[in-house]
Structure formats: structure tokens, C-alpha cells
Amino acid sequence: MIRMASAALFVLVVFVGVTVLTTRYQEKLEPTMYEYMVENFQRDTAAHNAVAAILLNYRMYDTMFEALILLTAIIGMKQFLPSAGEFTGGKSGRGADTTDWSGDSPKQG
Amino acid sequence: MAERSLITQMIVGLLYPFMLLLGFYLILNGHYTPGGGFQGGSTFAMLFVARYVVFPVADMSSEHLHLLQRLFLALILVVPILVLFSGFLAGASEYSGMYLTLMDLFIGVQVGFGLGVAVFRFAFFKGIGPSWRF
Question: Are B58 and B124 spatial neighbours (Cβ–Cβ below 8 Å)?
Fold first, then answer.
């Protein structure tokens, strides 16, 4: 109990300390990128919407890797969440005959 | 899924083309109005959910959907490298709108198929069997 409390106190102190330090000593940057994008996005990208201009032209790398993240999530889901037919062994998961819709809840155990 | 209501079937059948229309509207107007690829793709994935609500039969392979998703992901990765990063678009600015629409369409279809795989996996998942343990 003492160990858990001290660990929680340590985490809280670190959290508060890091938050206070990073908000007190924040570097103020000039908004040059913001001004450039707001002024020039229509001429640069022919988009009528600054968000679309940033997502699809200025920050295209971001969109590409966002799509990759979706693929990664789906690969992980396919790995850890086998479909109904894959348990029975041999029989493929396709087709209505392997799925049983008579009961609402799956059997446990 | 004991009973399937006729009211649900009729309403979902009525709304189905409008869902498709909303998805295409969000995608194709992505560079004019709020919206874009991800939102339109999520609307496309709603089609799979609606289909599952009225017709919960696993007659569609999630492998095919995943293959299509990977195909469109490859297009998302290849088209900007060829068109945008090579500097072609900076010289030919009349194709900029076409490029934005095309990329929104690719992203939307990719997200739609990807979330469709997720919907099928979760919908037809039965947490039994020897290989599934947390």
C-alpha cells in the first residue's frame, strides 16, 4: 500500500513538474508558417479550404502515414480477432452455413 | 439476431442510396467544404454496418476487402510520390484541383474498405475456441 501510494505520488509530482516547466519556459515562435499558408494556399494548391490544402499538399506525408496507421490497426485486428470459421479448422470462414444465428450471445468457454 | 424486423429492412433499404450519396458528396466536395477522404470513407463503412443490420450473413470475405484496401493504400502512396513530390504539380497548376479530388477519392475508398474489414471482423467474431485468449 505504501509502495503504491509513493509510486502514485512520484508519478503525480513528475506530471505536475513537467507540465509547469514546459508551460513556464515556452518558446514563442513567430507564426511565419501560419501566415504563409493562410495567404498562399489558394494559389499554391487550388483548394478552397485551408484544411484540405494542408492535408493533401503541404503535409502529404502526414496523410500517407495516417493511411498506413489504419492498415497497421487492421492487420493487428485480423491477427488477434479471428473470424468465425477459423476456429473449426479446415473449413473456411466463408458461407452462411458456418455461422449460427440462432442465439444472441456466443457460448462462453 | 433472433428476428429481423421488416420495418428495419425497409428503412435501411430506403436510406442505402442516400448513405452512398452522402459519402460521395463528402469526398468530392472535400476541397470546397468541410469533409474529405476520412469522413466520406467512414460514411462508406456505414454501408457495411447497415447491410449487417438487415442481413447478418458472412457471405462477403473480409480478405477481399482487405486486398482492395491495400491496393488503394498503394495508390495513396504512389500517386503523391509521382505527382506531388516530383514537382510536376508545381509546374502544371491546372491539375491541382483534379489531384485533390483524386486523393480524396483514394483516401475515402481506402478508409471505407478498411473500416469495412473492421466491421466484418467484429460483427462475425465469436469469442470461443482454443486460439483466442487474452
Answer: yes
CB-CB neighbors (< 8 A) of A57 in chain B: 84, 89, 96, 100
Global pTM value: 0.74
Q: Which chain B residues are closer than 8 Å to A107 by Cβ? A: 126, 128
Rounded (10°) angle between helices B6-28 and B37-54: 170
Contacts of A50 in chain B (CB under 8 A): none
Greatest Cα pair distance in chain B = 61
Interface contact B99-A56, CB threshold 8 A: yes
* ipTM, interface predicted TM-score of the complex: 0.78
Map out the domains of chain B as residue ranges. Answer: 6-123
Q: Where are the alpha helices (DSSP H) in chain B?
A: 6-28, 37-54, 62-83, 88-91, 96-123
Residue B15 has pLDDT above 80, yes or no: yes
Chain B CA closest to residue A89: B129
Summarize pLDDT for A13-70 with one digit per residue, the tens.
Answer: 999 999 998 888 888 888 898 899 889 888 888 888 888 888 888 888 998 998 899 9
A46 and B104 in contact by Cβ < 8 A?
A: no
C-alpha cell at A100: 449460427
Compare all CA atoms of chain A with the CA of B83 and give the residue at the minimum distance. A57
Question: Which pLDDT does position A94 carry in this prediction?
Answer: 45
